[in-house]
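Example record

Each entry pairs one chain with its bound ligand, nicotinamide-adenine-dinucleotide.
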Amino acid sequence: MLNFAVIGVGRMGKRHAFNLKAGLLFGVRLAAVCDVDDKALDWCKKHLKGVKTFRSYKDLANEKLDGVIIATPHYQHVEIAKFMIEAGINTLIEKPAAPNVTLIKEIESAHAKRKDVLAGVSYNQRSNRMYKRAKALLSSGKLGEIQRANYIITDWFRSQAYYDQGGWRATYGGEGGGCLMNQCIHQLDVLQWLIGMPKSVVATTRTVDRNISVENDVSAILVYDKFDCSFTASTHEIKGVNRLEIACDKGRLVIGSRRMRVYRHKSEVEVNAKTKFGYGSSPSVSYFVGYGFFRYIADLVKGQQLRSLRAFRDAINKKGSMLAELEEGERAMQIINGIYLSSYLGESVSLPVDEQKYGEYLEKMIEKENKN
Ligand SMILES: NC(=O)c1ccc[n+]([C@@H]2O[C@H](COP(=O)([O-])OP(=O)(O)OC[C@H]3O[C@@H](n4cnc5c(N)ncnc54)[C@H](O)[C@@H]3O)[C@@H](O)[C@H]2O)c1
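Structure tokens for the complex follow.
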């Protein structure tokens, strides 16, 4: 039996703690929880009977733990993750590992010295069956080279009331950014997992119809060697979509929130080379891959995030791998920081992002936020 602890028992941490306490992760016991807030600890004492409670994460080092899950606000991830990794405890960090590339690298440096310890990021959307199938298809080479990608994400509606809850959310100083940092980081991780890293980005971000200092609307072009990906995200639209389309030489993936349509057709390069006419097409076959009804219901009840914990457990038991290792978790943040910097400077930004310029930009944003 593995012993886990959850650090930060707010919204996400409660779900993790509750799932573990309910025995939903076979072979794992919730041994301890930690939070700096009295109300959170009172909740734990009431709902997680028999589980040790701690106010300081440092005291967890004296417990015999096989793994910790960090679910605190973003900036706090850094010192806690470094401490746990240095203490030799396997660490799963809720996304994002930290709110910018520079801080993620701080955790990576600690991990570089303790490679015997697992360090991962909870990018639970990688467990989505459709994305896994898309990854397998793209990696197999059956679809040929990628020619274009489009991602539109407008289904994370957040009202003013959400932001009015206050705290660390939707601030540069508390969260590190807006809709990209909190919500769409999941999809940016999936995007880079599927099609790789862009070499540069050009973007605009804005705040639409909400009283917040960070963005809730983004338009970006992610530039690759041989194709571009247009990326749109907003959290102010009602009834939006989550739609990724990847057009390849020999096929096309159209991935929605509940199903993916896979098209297979002749090579566009060959059709273009052979056709004598100005117009041409190729018959295609297509089929659907669904999210899976029972998976969907299970995820609604237990949260897709349980799959991250499952992968973490399996990796500790050497029976599988984590959904995303810490070092991979940096990639989505490279894109996010690039987008923010591009929007601010009004110019294209190369990746990896210039961390010094990003730091100066962020400092200005935090200063401006504090004045208001
Ligand atoms: N994977 C997902 O789908 C998903 C969904 C929601 C949130 N999250 C992530 O989970 C994390 C937490 O988000 P949330 O919505 O639960 O936040 P939250 O504000 O509801 O909870 C954070 C908790 O951490 C506690 N905390 C703060 N500093 C601490 C410290 N030093 N030591 C111990 N506890 C501390 C707070 O008191 C609070 O109870 C964030 O990284 C967020 O992005 C992930």
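The two ends are 51 Å apart (CA to CA).
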